[in-house]
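With this grant's support, we have settled on a layout for protein records. An illustrative entry appears below exactly as we store it:
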Amino acid sequence: SLGQARIADPGDQRDYVDSLEAESAALRSALGARGIRLSDVVTYARTFNGFAATVRTGDLADLPSLGVTAQPVRRFYPATAEPVKAPGVRPPIAAAPLGGASVAVLDTGVDPAHPLLANRLDPGYDAVDGDDDPAPAGDPRGGRREASGTALAGILVAAGERVLPIRVAGLQPATQGSGLEDVAVSDQLLAGLERAVDPDGDGA
């Protein structure tokens, strides 16, 4: 990956990322030529050199023929406790900005309308939905709404930091049944890490 290559010059970093992405595309093309169909492809080059994709179970045995090592996508679960109001404790206020780089929060969505976070959030990324809106999701049936990302961002802002919100976890379809669960998936975490180290996506 770019992180392992330890390349200092931004232009050289972009060239290196381009070369890794071209290699990945060539490999996927070779797999396609052998009849292996990939879908939902996401390429990584900055923190991990590889790609995530959905592949038919019957094609898994053919992947090693081109030197591909397949790893299953794993699910992991954030803390289930939600912030609660403590009697007699005043809400925090935003400390004066410390300056310097923003702190990336890889968690559930962050609520940009929260008054504590006003003017302290950088444009973020949603690795769950694959867009630039890392706002928290809510259960369409009512009730639950993602809150841990907003709470963590609030702690950082109260300490004087700016925050780069990156949603890598949240309400997603459960593996069993038809409901939703608070979950993160390893390929979404990798996508979030890629954006955290390269927020503008320019390859450097």
